[in-house]
Amino acid sequence: MLFPPPSQVQHIAIIGTGVIGSGWAAHFLRNGMDVTAYDPAPDTESKLRQKIETVWPTLARLGLRPNASPDRLRFVHSLEEAVTDAEFIQENTPERLPVKIATLTAIDAAAPPDSLIASSTSGYGMTEMAVNVRHPERCVVAHPFNPPYLMPAVEVVAGKKTSPEAHQWAVDFYRATGKQPLKLTKETPGFVADRIMEAVWREILHMINHDMATVEEIDMSVRYGPGLRWAMMGPLTVLHLGGGAGGMAHLIHQFGPSLQSPWTFLGAPELTDDLVQKVIEGCERLTEGIPIHELEAERDDLLIQMLERLDKSRLWHIGNRHVKRTKWQPSPEPPRWRAGDPIAAPLDLYHCTVDPEWIDYNGHMTEAAYLTAFGWASDAIFHYIGIDDSYRASGNSYYTVETHLNYYRECSTGDPLRFTTQILDIDDKRLHLFHHMYHATSGELLCTTEQMLLHVDMHASRSSPARPHVLEALAAIMEIHRILPIPLEVGRQMAIRKKN
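Predicted structure:
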């Protein structure tokens, strides 16, 4: 089965738009993809669109891929219509096995043969769900964590008939969307994370049932105790550090015998009406009557802050260095000019989102951040004309020798930005650029910059002619850009220089 390259997938189908399905829809929209959604329950379209509208500022703060927009969401009224042209299908129906079996069977019958099908189930294995599917080799479990648009982890599990290629492709696809996929090698009931959480949940219920601790005491003990450490490292790493210089070996020898002590409850207690009421009333006291949507908003804000800080921590990446999470590049790699290619006038090669770190104490983008963003826009041009890492490694590059900024509108965290570039003039050593920065949604002009750059031989520490392939690209662009009017700011500056 031939799947498209994971990084090139554009059309996603979401089947089931509850808490998890709507979260997945938000995640894929954030990635600049087209999302087609279906849910047979009443009033689901309005609820889904309201959810996307509510979380979009959070997604913008986290970072939007180019062309990301809530407008790329389409709601349809049949499963078949939703999956007809989908390259990837995320199923999120209720956690009931007959429903899962029927839904996956219907998806498989209607979906294109080269699309992968993933189930967001939190407990069933694909082997038991895909019993009536004609092509089980393309079906995987992809168990996310709530909310899917923020939490990095997704457990990707193959069924007995899932092909190894499909399993690996799903892992690569989720990673390409900014997830931290966990490729599980065993089809374990409940997977890994849920089994750990269920064990904690059972112990909590026993303690409440036996009046050993209140809901508040239990929640605070995790929040201010192991929860803080688990946010930056796994429980085994926590225990490894708990052994001091001797690590896990010392800890096991010292505390291993205590595991035989019967101070924990293993099986789940009976969920009696009395126990259920204790848990519900305790949670209501704990949250002090604050509405759920307000708690969700605060949770998302704290999660982003934690993710931003943890991403800079070595502990966060221990054991997973090869897929270290980094901030997304503000736009995908720009194209390279080839002789005969059509040339835009002006060039439109660079898009990004205002990063929280670019914001000053007034809540607006700093002057230094404008220079950074325009510098990346220039980098996009360099790549376009053939200046890449190998070019710079040879000792050649363009250096900025003069910059003029003009500010028109303020921008803040999460604002989507679009940059256009006009080449004003060239010779074998000099490059004269003019950038416009726009708000990508409203189209408002935010800032412009004029840059003069000089080609330099870094080994000789002096100016030098650019290489022939760079000059050829610049000449082709300049030929097209001669038709564009000179920006007013540049005209004024040129008049002043001529006068002086």
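Summary: Confidence is low (pLDDT under 50) at residues 321-331.
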